[in-house]
Design brief:
272 residues, alpha/beta, 12 helices, 10% strand, Sulfotransferase family protein
Length: 272
């Protein structure tokens, strides 16, 4: 069984990739099982828990949750599987630690161990989408500014850049590569998606290796969850500092998006 596992990184085109997969799910499903974030939320929560504690019990819970999840999937030794869920590496980095994703190698190992419960050989290809540092940090900041759940995010961009200074996706990627030498690893920078036929969805199509007449039936999607203009994000920060109740703050943010002509850009609140 072949698995293409895409656990992140956050703010590297993951939502666009998932939109492509969802839009083309009827073409994908006969050829591969498809798993998107909402479907694997219990496993993501186990990954959150371990990333917070780095405890042995929480690490075992990742494998347990993964095996329980897989047990409910219609799988067989010849069926391929696509998984895209950025929370499988833990929460979005906020500069609270020097590492982007604490315990990432252990998390990925525990997820892969979950497949052993299927009882047949499984070949996992790990796919990590990446991004140049400046755009990545600014996108995380804008995302946190826009959020309507959790504690209001109030840092200005310069302060957030300083907090994120020790955090490096390149170092995180190197750690994963060194820690999982026997796992096939595919990486793509978001800048490369513009030249690809299916954009952020291209790596998944490449993995499936479908004939041209099937690929021709796939549809492209617009980029999803793109950061709003800087002025909009700055207004969100001001609202987060305003002391408004959550309901009032949420309504005010929606009004800002409406004024900017972006009210349809963010229809759902994401899990951090």
């Amino acid at each position: 069984m072949q698995v293409f596992l895409h656990p992140g990184f956050h703010k590297t085109g993951t939502t666009s990739a998932q939109a492509f997969l969802h839009e083309n799910r009827e073409l994908i499903w006969p050829r591969a099982a498809l798993v998107l974030p909402k479907r694997i939320r219990d496993v993501s929560q186990a990954c959150f828990d371990y990333a917070e504690t780095l405890g042995a019990f929480e690490l075992r819970e990742i494998t347990r949750a993964m095996r329980a999840f897989l047990a409910d999937m219609p799988l067989n030794p010849n069926r391929r599987m696509l998984i895209s869920a950025e929370n499988l590496l833990g929460r979005m980095p906020l500069g609270l630690r020097d590492t982007a994703y604490p315990g990432a190698v252990n998390i990925l190992s525990a997820l892969i161990d979950g497949f052993a419960g299927l009882g047949w050989p499984v070949e996992v290809t790990l796919y990590l989408s990446t991004r140049e540092r400046t755009g990545w940090v600014e996108s995380i900041w804008a995302h946190q500014a826009r959020k309507t759940t959790g504690k209001p995010f109030t840092r200005d961009l310069d302060d957030f850049r300083a907090a994120m200074a020790p955090v490096s996706l390149e170092a995180q990627l190197a750690e994963i590569r060194a820690g999982l030498p026997d796992v096939a690893l595919v990486t793509h920078d978001v800048a490369s998606f513009n030249a690809m036929r299916f954009g952020a969805g291209q790596p998944f199509v490449d993995f499936l290796n479908l004939p041209n007449h099937i690929q021709d039936q796939f549809v492209t999607v617009e980029r999803n969850n793109v950061a709003p203009p800087m002025a909009v994000s700055e207004r969100f920060i001001a609202l987060n500092r305003s002391g408004l109740a959550r309901e009032e703050r949420t309504a005010a943010k929606r009004a800002v998006l409406f004024q900017a002509g972006m009210q349809e850009a963010y229809p759902d609140e994401e899990v951090p």
